[in-house]
Amino acid sequence: MKETNAVFKSRGISFLYLSPSILILLTFIFYPAWKAIILSLYRSNLFLGTRKFIGAENIQNLFWGPLAPGFRQVMVQTIIFSTLVVGIGISVSLFLSVQANKDIKGARIYRMLLIWPFALSPAIAATIALFMFNPEVGLVNAVLHMNIRWLDSPVLAFLLTVCIAVWKNLGYNIVFYLAALQSIPRSPLEAADIDGASPVKKFWLVTFPLLGPTTFFLLFTNITYSFFDTFGIIDMLTRGGPVGPGPFFDKEGLTTTLMYKVYLDGFGGSSNMGFAAAEGLVLMAFVVLVTFLQFRFLGKRIHYEG
């Protein structure tokens, strides 16, 4: 039987099939982005209903105005926070996935327990952490027999927020790593065993390169998670505080990321929606830059089978 390729006879039919995706992109991505660009040109107060065109003044104030030191601090904190969440999250999830993939008794139960935190919303995960690390009745202080005020210390609050963010997303990473580990062909591993490779060498020289596409995908999704989806955790745990030590980290709360600062400036005391929109544009540009660099320098090193 002669094989034929299914093709669209007219462009209208292809656009018809694409129309739902195009409509979603226009409604939830491109239109809000365009409105944010327009809003960033105004000094706008959400609650007073005032609006005045000021051009690029909001962007200038981010980098050279009186609010620039606080914005620079938040940018540095966002980079550090994202690096820790992504680096620790992928490393720990890879280690746990390798252990859970072993043929041991009760492996299905262990895998289920590792995955279930992903089913929790960020707010619920943060609420659990609030109870566990409560200085008066928390389980952690009771086990340590200490009275540590975790959320009052800027450094401890920052580290705790990182840990909760990592724990919340472990299940997502483990699902993909387990699927990738179980799809690795047996022949390369058996060849490594015949050559006398140690378990460590077999992992780094055989298993890990074959996990490259999965790691590349998870790197992208984890960066997005650290920038945006940790908002609920920060809001419930610290609300962006406490203020860190000087002279470099005393302008904003130490757990305030760029996404949370957009919320504070847009819906907080000043309610300057134009300034918050300008911050949102910087955040969007930063994510685009990170994505471009990732595909530019890491994408070529990933090898896909087949």
Describe the structure.
The protein has 306 residues and is mostly helical. The chain has a domain of 213 residues: MetI-like fold, CATH 1.10.3720. Helices cover 67% and strands 2% of the residues. The protein has 13 helices and two strands; from the N terminus they run αββαααααααααααα. The chain has a two-stranded antiparallel ribbon with strand order 1-2. A hairpin with a 6-residue loop joins strand 1 and strand 2. It is globular, with a radius of gyration of 24 Å. It starts with 10 loop residues before the first helix and ends in an 8-residue tail after the last helix. The model has no long low-confidence stretch (mean pLDDT 87).
How would you write the strand order of the largest sheet? 1-2
Q: What is the name of the CATH class of one domain? A: Mainly Alpha
For this structure, what is the CATH homologous superfamily of one domain?
A: MetI-like
Q: Tell me what the CATH architecture of one domain is.
A: Orthogonal Bundle
Query: Strand portion, in percent?
Result: under 5%
Low-confidence stretches: none
Number of strands: 2
CATH topology of one domain: MetI-like fold
Mean pLDDT: 87
| Rounded radius of gyration (Å) | 24 Å
Number of helices: 13
- Note the main sheet: 2 strands, antiparallel
H/E element string? HEEHHHHHHHHHHHH
Give the CA-CA distance, first to last residue: 25 Å
* Classification by helices and strands: mainly alpha
* 3D shape: globular
What is the helix fraction of residues, given as a range?
A: 55-70%
